[in-house]
């Protein structure tokens, strides 16, 4: 499943207001600035900080 490019251009991280990067393999929207990955469930981005996965800072 892919995310609509029009939607991706408009979505920003709710914590930082910075652009997001779509990770198709993980089905997540990644905010490098916040160190968070927001899940996409059934094609719908879940843009809640409480639902986001923390990224491993060591890579």
Automatic annotation (TrEMBL):
<comment type="similarity">
    <text>Belongs to the UPF0434 family.</text>
</comment>
<dbReference type="InterPro" id="IPR005651">
    <property type="entry name" value="Trm112-like"/>
</dbReference>
<dbReference type="GO" id="GO:0005829">
    <property type="term" value="C:cytosol"/>
</dbReference>
<protein>
    <recommendedName>
        <fullName>UPF0434 protein GGQ96_002484</fullName>
    </recommendedName>
</protein>
<dbReference type="Pfam" id="PF03966">
    <property type="entry name" value="Trm112p"/>
</dbReference>
